[in-house]
């Protein structure tokens, strides 16, 4: 995924499913470096991780 698409997903009101290593995640923010994003797993766990955006995949 590229930074432009991450920004589109963040600004969208639609529920767009994004996968990280095959796991469904929410994108919280595109980080300032433009190469990483802060995400958390969908579900009850709120643990956040910083991941490379090129490892995110839109389902």
TrEMBL record:
In the record, biological process GO terms are: asexual sporulation; sporulation resulting in formation of a cellular spore
Q: Which signals induce this protein?
A: Expressed only in the forespore compartment of sporulating cells.
Q: What is its main location?
A: other
**Signal peptide from the UniProt entry:** none
Q: Could you tell me the keywords of this UniProt record? A: Sporulation
Name its cellular compartments. Answer: Spore core
Keyword Iron-sulfur listed? no
Task: Please tell me one Gene Ontology term that the record gives under cellular component.
Answer: endospore-forming forespore
Sequence similarity: Belongs to the SspH family.
Protein name listed in UniProt: Small, acid-soluble spore protein H
Organism annotation: Bacillus oleivorans
Give the classification, highest ranks. Answer: Bacteria, Bacillati, Bacillota, Bacilli, Bacillales
Q: Which gene encodes it?
A: sspH
């Amino acid at each position: 995924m590229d930074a432009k698409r991450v920004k589109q997903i963040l600004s969208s009101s639609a529920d767009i499913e994004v996968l990280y290593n095959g796991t469904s995640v929410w994108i919280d923010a595109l980080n300032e470096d433009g190469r990483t994003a802060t995400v958390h797993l969908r579900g009850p766990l709120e643990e956040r991780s910083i991941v490379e955006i090129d490892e995110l995949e839109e389902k």
